[in-house]
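Regression check, zinc ion case 365:
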Amino acid sequence: MDKQADYAYMQQALELVRRATIETSPNPKVGCVIVREGQVLGQGWTQPVGQAHAEVQALRDAATKGHDVRGATAYVTLEPCSHFGRTPPCANGLRDAGIARVVAAMQDANPQVAGRGLGILQEAGVEVECGAFPDLALQARELNIGFFQRMETGMPWVRMKVAGSLDGITALSNGQSQWITGPAARQDGHLWRARADAILTGIGTVLSDDPMLNVRGVDTPRQPQKIIVDSQLRISAQAKVLQGGALIVCAVADAGKQLELEHAGAEVICLSDENQQVDLPALMQELGRRQINELHVEAGATLNGALIRQNCINELLMYLAPKLLGSGAGLFNLPELNHVDEARALQFHEVSRVGDDLRILARFK
Ligand code: AOF
Ligand code: ZN
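Current build output:
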């Protein structure tokens, strides 16, 4: 088979993934291109959850154009599914349509699929190739990083956003913190909020800023869920963040306050650790159970530090302004170390300029 052509069609399938909306979540975004003898017969990408998968869309596209797909090759950015979920198995669909060859960028990590989709095809005599291009497999994975994280660990992919001066100051000692970074960075931050399934903050931020914690200024088909870590249930029922619903996570139950917050549209759950603080790792497990793939954290230094200490963060999204503020509040409250070797190690994943500011994506090792 023509390796170069396979690579190019898989790239095309990956491009299609970008057309899928965030509303596919909790499903992964997948792209599919059906080709025979150098002619693209049909293409498709995953539709909002509950609707057609990429393969079904591509088969429909080919049918609409009057193409017979028998003997064709299907390029898919993820192994076709094998199970009856919200939709019937794509592996059966491709098989029954007479597809002769399936090239998949990578296996599905969903334990209900995990190789079975490829198995169905192979048993039916369809030629199958999976993972032949490691760089494209990596791209396919990155496009669905939250889905894979949840499938593999039961927890979401957690991204913590922070913004500060070049010397790591996020607020002056007098509390002033607004507009350290520029408008482009703020707008970019909203794009990252929009792609998340949920946004998490702490009670400190709610009490001091009364934030809305929603997506503004960028187009989005839906708002992320809002989650507030509030050990002692100090939040006011009038807090702006409760508009449109929110999940409040406490550590000390208070039936009266809980009822008041529920009347204001919130859901309250209690997850306590031995220190009467919210059990953060247990919260991450709970959010995984709730099918949150990507979680966006925007909190103050206290909750940020606690989340990092308890290994709840996968990635930092940092905006740094080309300014020195000298002293004030730092980005994370972490314990003082005695030795540099004890430092939490990260790896730069991506470094870029957004307006006048620097954007750093760094992943915990
Ligand atoms: C595919 N093509 O485009 C996607 C797949 O509940 P369902 O029926 O929508 O199935 C969801 C699961 O299907 C999801 O967890 C993942 O394993 C797989 N996603 N599979 O063949 C697609 N989005
Ligand atoms: Zn499917």
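Comparison notes: The chain has a mean pLDDT of 95. Residues 53, 55, 80-81, 90 surround zinc ion (ligand 2) (CB under 6 Å). No diff flagged against the previous build.
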